[in-house]
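Researcher: I'm preparing a figure for a lab meeting and need a structural model of a single chain. I don't have an experimental structure, so a prediction will have to do for now. The sequence is pasted below. Please return the structure as tokens so I can convert it later.
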Amino acid sequence: MVTEENYRQVWFLKYLGAFSVKKKSRSILETLNYAGSLLNDPQNLVVIFPQGKLYSSHSDAIIFEKGLMNIINSSQKKFQYLFAVILTDYFEHRKPSVKCFLQTWEGAEFTSLQLIKSEYNKHYDASKKQQNLLSV
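Model: Understood. Here is the structure written out token by token.
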């Protein structure tokens, strides 16, 4: 799920099963509820860019939009959180290397947006530190 503008800019997302959400529109609640209902099927994977759009991986922290809680609350809350941080570096090579840092997280039944944001940013910071160790 990505913003409509990112969906148009990163054209290959549609081949990966992505769908767009138009911010500040009436259909946004329907889209968020749809994403939440997808989480009820354990065969589904819903990838969310919590900041609402694509940003550089060199940001200091990831900001979370409140739509994430709409998705969580419209689901049966029986899904697994998987935090992902993808970092690219060139180091001394001509082509970039890509490293993906994954971490599962168990959320409580009444998880808040602030708690998810805090836990994700801890993982994000640890991933950046680990990436820096790779370059030494």
